[in-house]
Design goal:
Elements: H1 8-33, H2 38-49, H3 63-92, H4 95-111, E1 116-119, H5 123-134, E2 139-143, H6 146-154, E3 159-161, H7 167-172, E4 180-183, H8 188-201, E5 206-210, H9 216-223, E6 227-229, H10 231-243, H11 254-264, E7 269-275, H12 287-293, E8 298-304, E9 310-312, E10 324-330, H13 334-346
Parallel strand pairs: 1-2, 1-4, 2-3, 4-5, 5-6
Antiparallel strand pairs: 7-10, 8-9, 8-10
Helix pairs in contact: 1-2, 1-3, 8-9
Length: 349
C-alpha cells in the first residue's frame, strides 16, 4: 500500500465538498431565521443550488430574504461546479483507481501476521525482498521515496509510503504482529533511530540492521538490534577468499572484475584500486595501520606487489612504491576515497 499523497485534484475535491457543506449550513441557518423549519430550509437549499426549478418552499417577502437567497444560489452553484470539476479531474488522472487500490492494499496489510517489515527499498532492500519472496515469507516494504514505493508496487510487493521513524507508520504496517524488521537504509543514523523506535514498540521483534561504518555497529547494538550487517565487510571476506584461491586471479581479469562489481552493486559496494606512488604519504605503513587511517570509509582487501604477487589483508604486508592497494568501499564513497588519498599523495601536509 502507498499512503495517498495530497495531489491538486484531491485537494480540490476536499475543498469543494467543504465549501458545499459550509454553504449548506449557512443556508439552513438563514432560512430557519425566516421562521422555516429545518427540513423546509434544507429542501430549499437543494432545489435552489441544483436549479431544479421548483417554486420557493415559502414566499420570500422582504428584499433581505431575496438578497440572501441570491447569494446562496451564486455561492452554492459555484461550490457545486468546483466539486464536480475536481471529481472529473480525479477520474481523469486515475486517482480514484489509486484510492481504491490503496484501500485494497490496506486490507492486505491488515491481514499480515508474523511478517517482515523491510525499511528501505534501495539496492539491498530489493535483494531482501527477492529473497523473502523466494522463501514465501510475507513482508511489507516501507520507504519515504514515492518512486521506490511505485517500483515495489509494480513488482507486486506490498508497500507503504511513510517514515519508519514514526510510530504511527510502524503501527500501520503491523509492527505489533511482525516477527522481524530489517532496516537497510544507506543512512546509519536513520537505521539507529528506526531500531530504537521498533524495539520500544515490539520488544520481542527480531531486528536486523545495516551499518555502513564499523563505528555504527555498537550504536545499533545499544539501540536494540539483534544482528548487524556490514555489507562492505561481507564483500571483503568473500573477495579475500577469492584472492586465496591459487588458480583464479580474478583481479587480473577485466571481465571478472566487472562481473564482481555487478554483484557487489547489490550491496552498494564497489572494488577500487589505488596505486602507490613515490609521493604517497603512507609508504612503509602496514595495511592495518592504513585501514585505521581510513576511519571505516573502506576495507582493504589485499595488496598487489609490483612483481604481481598478491597478499590478503590478513598478511599485513608493508606498503611500498609500485604496489597497488585493493579497496572495498561503499559504491558512492569508494571513488571519493581514491580521490582523497590521491590528493594527499600529491599534496602532503
Amino acid at each position: 500500500m502507498r499512503r495517498f499523497p495530497a495531489t491538486p485534484a484531491l485537494n480540490r475535491f476536499i475543498i469543494g465538498i467543504t465549501l458545499f457543506v459550509l454553504i449548506m449550513l449557512v443556508a439552513v441557518v438563514g432560512y430557519t431565521s425566516f421562521g422555516w423549519n429545518w427540513l423546509d430550509a434544507l429542501y430549499m437549499y437543494v432545489i435552489t443550488v441544483f436549479g431544479i426549478g421548483y417554486s420557493e418552499v415559502r414566499p420570500l417577502m422582504t428584499p433581505a430574504q431575496r438578497f440572501f437567497n441570491m447569494m446562496i444560489i451564486v455561492a452554492g452553484s459555484a461550490a457545486t461546479v468546483y466539486t464536480i470539476g475536481a471529481v472529473v479531474q480525479l477520474f481523469t488522472e486515475g486517482e480514484i483507481k489509486q484510492l481504491l487500490e490503496m484501500q485494497r492494499a490496506s486490507r492486505d496489510i491488515n491481514k499480515l501476521n508474523r511478517h517482515v517489515i523491510v525499511c528501505g527499498f534501495g539496492r539491498i532492500g530489493q535483494v531482501v525482498a527477492q529473497e523473502l519472496t523466494a522463501s514465501k515469507t510475507p513482508f511489507v516494504i516501507l520507504d519515504v521515496n514515492e518512486q521506490r514505493i511505485d517500483l515495489a508496487l509494480q513488482l507486486g510487493y506490498l508497500a507503504y509510503l511513510g517514515s519508519a521513524v514514526e510510530q504511527e507508520t510502524l503501527q500501520v504496517v503491523g509492527i505489533d504482529r511482525a516477527i522481524a524488521l530489517a532496516t537497510v537504509l544507506p543512512n546509519d543514523t536513520m537505521n539507529v533511530f528506526i531500531t530504537l523506535t521498533a524495539r520500544s514498540m515490539n520488544p520481542s521483534l527480531l531486528i536486523v540492521a545495516r551499518a555502513n561504518l564499523a563505528t555504527t555497529e555498537s550504536k545499533l547494538r545499544m539501540a536494540g538490534a539483534d544482528h548487524i550487517v556490514l555489507p562492505t565487510k561481507i564483500g571483503a571476506s568473500q573477495m579475500t577468499n577469492l584472492i586465496r584461491r591459487p588458480r583464479i586471479d580474478f583481479l587480473e581479469q577485466t571481465g571478472d572484475r566487472e562481473t564482481l562489481n555487478d554483484l557487489l552493486s547489490h550491496i552498494d559496494a564497489r572494488l577500487e584500486e589505488l596505486e602507490i606512488t613515490p609521493d604517497y604519504p603512507y609508504v612503509g605503513t602496514r595495511l592495518t595501520g592504513l585501514e585505521v587511517r581510513g576511519e571505516g570509509a573502506f576495507i582493504i582487501v589485499g595488496l598487489r606487489k609490483s612483481d604481481g604477487q598478491l597478499f590478503p589483508a590478513r598478511a599485513n604486508p608493508l606498503v611500498e612504491v609500485g604496489d597497488t592497494l585493493i579497496l572495498l568501499g561503499h559504491a558512492q564513497d569508494a571513488p571519493k576515497v581514491i580521490r582523497k588519498y590521491t590528493y594527499r599523495a600529491r599534496h602532503p601536509q
